[in-house]
Amino acid sequence: MDVKLDLSSYVRVLKLASTPSWEEFSKISKIAGAGIILVGLLGFIIFAAMSFLPA
User: Fold this and answer.
1) Largest Cα span, the chain
2) How far apart are CA 29 and CA 50, in angstroms?
3) Per residue in 4-48, pLDDT tens?
4) Are 44 and 36 in contact (CB under 8 A)?
5) Virtual CA dihedral for 46, 51, 53, 54, nearest 10 degrees?
6) For residues 54 and 9, which has the higher predicted lDDT (pLDDT)?
7) Under 8 Å between Cβ of 20 and 28
8) Which spans are transmembrane here (predicted)?
9) Torsion over CA: 16, 22, 26, 27 (sign)
């Protein structure tokens, strides 16, 4: 494990990173929120189906 090489690659990635614009951030937030709601809805549907169907 070469710590110096690891640190230099971390610093290189941080230098390349930039903050997103407001438009890009809001678009990503909407897509992520829709995904979370979709997964929650799917889980609720499975829960409801398992509750109402006889064992």
Assistant:
1) 61
2) 32
3) 788 888 899 999 988 999 999 999 999 999 999 999 999 999 999
4) no
5) 140
6) 9
7) yes
8) 31-53
9) negative
